[in-house]
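This entry is retained here.
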Amino acid sequence: MAGEDNNREARRGDDREESSPLLQGNDTKIYSKEDAKTAPIVPPPAAEEHGWTADGLPVTDGSVIGEPIGRNQWNSGLFSCFGRNDEFCSSDLEVCLLGSVAPCVLYGTNAERLGSAPGTFSNHCLTYSGLYFIGNSLFGWNCLAPWFSYSSRSAIRRKFNLEGSFEAMNRSCGCCGSCIEDEMQREHMETTCDFVTHGLCHTCALCQEGRELRRKVLHPGFNAQSTVVVLPPSEQTMGRK
C-alpha cells in the first residue's frame, strides 16, 4: 500500500509540473543527434533583389528599399519658349532672350547653379564660346557646343529625378521598354536622348534647363542669410546749465 501511495504522489507531481504556467509557454524542442541528422533543413529566406540607379543608389519608394519611385515632370515643356505665367514669368523671358542672343551666357549660368564652385561660370562660358565660334566658322552652324553642353541636361535630370525623353517616349507608346533590361541600360539610353535633344533642339534645351534651375536652385551669389548691422552709439554731450 505504501508503494502505491508513493506512485500516486509521483504522478501527481508530474501532472503539476506539466500544468505549470511557466512550462506552457515553452515550446522549445530538444532534438537528439539522430533527430538532428534526419530533421529537414529549411533554407533561409532569399534576399529580395532590387534595382540600382546609375549613381549607385537603390531604387526606392520613399523608403530604403521598395518599388521604383515615379519620375518628376519638368516644370515647362521643351518648346515652351516664354515659360509659364507664374511668379517666374520675367525670369523665363530673360532665359528666352539669353538663349536666343547669348547661349554661352545662359549655359554658364546653368552650370553655375548646378556647381557653385569658384570659376564655374567663366570656365563653362568661355569653353562654350570657343566651340560656338569654331562650329559657326567651319561648319556654318553651332554643331560643336552641344557635344560639350548635353551633360548638364543629364546632371539636372539625375539631380531632380526628372523624366527623361526615353522614358516619356516609352510611357506614351510602350514600344521601347522591351529592349531595356536594367537601370544601367535605361540610363545609357536617357543620356543618348539628352545628346540628341541638344543636337537637334539646342537652344530650346538650354532654355528649358534654365527655367528648371531658376525655379529650384538659388543663384550662388544670393545670400539668403539675414545680416545684422550693429551701429555704434551716437556721440553724447553733456549740456551745461
